[in-house]
Design goal:
The complex is a heterodimer of chains A (492) and B (168).
Chain A (H helix, E strand, L loop, with lengths): L6 H5 L7 H15 L9 H15 L2 H13 L8 E7 L3 E3 L1 E15 L10 E8 L7 H16 L5 E7 L3 E9 L3 H9 L9 H14 L6 E8 L7 H13 L2 E8 L5 H10 L3 E5 L5 H12 L2 E12 L3 E10 L3 E2 L6 E8 L4 E11 L2 E14 L7 E13 L10 H24 L3 H18 L2 H17 L4 H12 L12
Helix pairs in contact in A: 2-3, 5-6, 5-10, 7-8, 8-9, 11-12, 11-14, 12-13, 13-14
Chain B lengths: L1 E2 L6 E2 L35 H8 L8 E6 L4 E6 L4 E4 L11 E2 L13 E8 L2 E6 L6 E3 L2 E2 L6 E2 L5 E4 L2 E7 L1
Parallel strand pairs in B: 5-6
Antiparallel strand pairs in B: 1-2, 3-4, 3-13, 5-7, 7-8, 8-11, 9-10, 9-12, 12-13
Amino acid sequence: MQVDKDYYNILGVPHTATEEEIRQAYRALARRYHPDANKEAGAHARFQEVQEAYEVLNNPAERQKYDHGREEQGRDKSSALSLRAIPSHKTLLAMPEEQAYYVLLNVTPAGDLPTSRLPLNLCLVLDRSTSMQGMRLQQVKEATRQIIDKLQTEDSLSLVVFSDRAEVLLPSQRNVDKAMAKSVASTIQPSGGTEMLQGLLIGLKEIERNRSETSVNHLILLTDGQTYGDEQGCVEQAEVAGRHQISLSTMGIGSDWNEDLLDQMAALSGGVSTYIDSPRKVVDVFKDTIRTLGTVVARELVMTVTTRSGVRLHEAFQITPHIRRLEMRGDKVVLGPLGTEQAKALLMEFRVQGRAVNEQSLMRITVEGDVPGQADRRSWEWVELTARISETPDPNADIPPPIVTALGKLAIFKMQEKAMRDLEAGEISAATQRLETMATRLLNLGETDLARAALLEAGRLARTGDLSPEGRKKIRYGTRALSILPKEIHHD
Amino acid sequence: MIKCPFCQTTHVANTLFCSECGTYLLEDDRRGTDPLGTGEIGWVGTEEEGTEHLTKQGSGPLGVRLHIGESGREVEALLTKAIHLGRLDPASDVFPEIDLSEDGGLEKGVSRRHARILKREGTVVVEDLGSINGTFINGKRLAPYLPEALHDGDQLQLGKLLIEIELS
């Protein structure tokens, strides 16, 4: 192996190429330069080069050694992303049936990234329907004014309000006149119903006006009511936004809004949905959102999971910043933006089937993203996971504690998912029982508030056949926040 | 395939948590850590007894015989799955394995879904299901939804209904 040779270039494949892609490239080149077929001068040397490149890249262990060697020599730019994978097992027991195999993957920005903040391109889309009257609107205005104070010169901001119709209060602009913007925010008056789609459409249009190659584009949508008849349109627009690198924070205040809708919109755009149970919390939620956006270094992260034969991905979840199910599209999934303070931890459950072998590659996981702070913007990093499949059990096989902890929290989140699904299917007693079991687990974890909420709702469910709207939200948003460690809660 | 000791759901080998009830599925002797504290929470009795019961999965008593209060009725049940104690109420979709209606359950304050007895990690435990009038072991009231160990000869009390426990 010679690390000064660029084997990828020789085979004409990207660094992220799968074994299959490498094999195909090799076959084509070998056929072209084979000494029997090609008598041109240099063909033989080229054939040997191709042969050498293939021998290294086709062997996962050799390939990893080669890649590391290249990186150490500084021949391949170091990635802006850093991956750390923890597998549940290093040795699997050979058995005819499928077995479970877990991988916890931490995605963080690499340490040497420029620390300058990317410009924000922000739009606030605020519900001003009659029900917002009083404390709610007052707090939203205050939160908006505090956000305006935090803007920097290169940031752009727009303000949109909606009720039965939507209007632009502050057109998207850079270098915002803060005093003027704050006085505009103060003029918001409550009236009318809730028609979200109009607000969303206008908000997205405002963001388009000031988007740039480096801007972090974000729309904050806050509502306190159900929107009727335009849900499908909202979902479609959220997906369009995601494709245009605009993430949505959807926020519901009170208990009267549709959590399925807000959740779906956030997930499709790589954003977050938040339950604001008291108007007093609006200011903190807004400030926290802006602070997190200010740390974004990589936009639109995408993960690709390539499994070897006998291995398949069963399901995947994001564990931090909050728990959510990852919907794979083929072998890819959108992870959303990555900030310096919010490492992403992902937990994947695989099914492995195989005979006894020595060290064998199970899969390759690649994460790529758009890193505007770096000259060559596409950045990627990958990890290869290997395991030995043995006839005898490994006596020292301890499951790494981080995996057990993450799975324990995930188990509660999944029980919540199932309880909601049971409820939807009209299986009241099954849902009740699940909520009760969930409460027990939560008590064991020391999550007494959430356990109490689950118990209360289980009782209500058994009596009335349904959950309260607050309870539904409390359980849903509470279980997804189980993975949040105390240190991640910020105050300033 | 492995089976959840708590709810009997089957899972593929190496599964760490039951997808139905969230129980940690790894055998004790291979357990590197116990983040949830399941199994250790709320045990009563001396420590030696506790560890003895916890050593092997599948060991321990096979069944339980209940000697019920004034009616003197005796019921035996296998501990292959959780046994619910309460009052039958088809209208509310409550079908306990052991129906205490005929033992004066209503008068003595037994809830429809009162408690359940099950075997967890070799130990027989009883869990109060958030009953109105409470579940007691030898006069000590249990916290709702926190299972506690049940021993041969224990006096189990649901509301005011006394039940003597015999493990077999």
